[in-house]
Amino acid sequence: MDKSGPKIYSEEYYETLKSIAGNHWWTLGMDDIMDIIILPNMPDNGDKHIIDMGCGSGTGLVWAKSRFPEGSYILGIDISQHGIKRCKNRGADLLVGSVTNVPISSNSFDLAICNDVLQHVEDDQKVVMEANRILKPGGVLFIRTNSKFVLPKLPGCLRLYKKHGLRELLRNTGFDEIIISHANLPGSLISIMKYYLQSDSSDYNDKQIDVCGHNHDGKKNKGGLMIQARSTGGKSMMERLMRLTLQMEGRLMRLLPWLIPFGHTHIVLAKKPK
Hints:
7-stranded mixed beta sheet; Rossmann fold; alpha/beta
């Protein structure tokens, strides 16, 4: 666990994660993207079984609980007790454990969610193989992870992904690709400008820029996260505009993903063959 950065498993980290859910344009916009690209690919045949692999503070569990029929079964698994503690009262069953060895029967779930996990796990292929194992034939996998584009990798991320690497990962683990797309292009442009307008110091820890979603070593970042909950709750004019850009990207992903040429987030949707 230590290889993923000193802050990622701290209690403060999970408390910060919980505080930004529904209170920041980025978390709200990412929920919108999940609505846009996951729901049309889920068969409309009643209750579903959903697992959030690396559920963190439970934002994916809250999303699933509010989108699927009341009788659906939702499970969250995370390696941290701090995370699981903050997932209580999310309407889901919870497990403390590794996403590389999920203690669940094969062919059990209709949807697997894996948000901001792969870049922190030493064996990312094993995570995706586990997702394939526990999904039913025809089951859907949703991944959100980071992207390699202009800015360097900060401490705390084991890797930065390119599209071809994610495509190969899906192919090696038996998934059919539906969508692989960049996301958050406007936010990435802002990050680039901030990064190069700040000090010329080569110490990435001192540059308070969200490069790969987290800055686990940055001393000034509460919980190792760059984004914080806002008093406006995502409702200010600027936040509404930024959220709208993510909604627009979600629609482009379904039809013309090449119109999003870069961004420091990747969105992946895949299906287990029947």
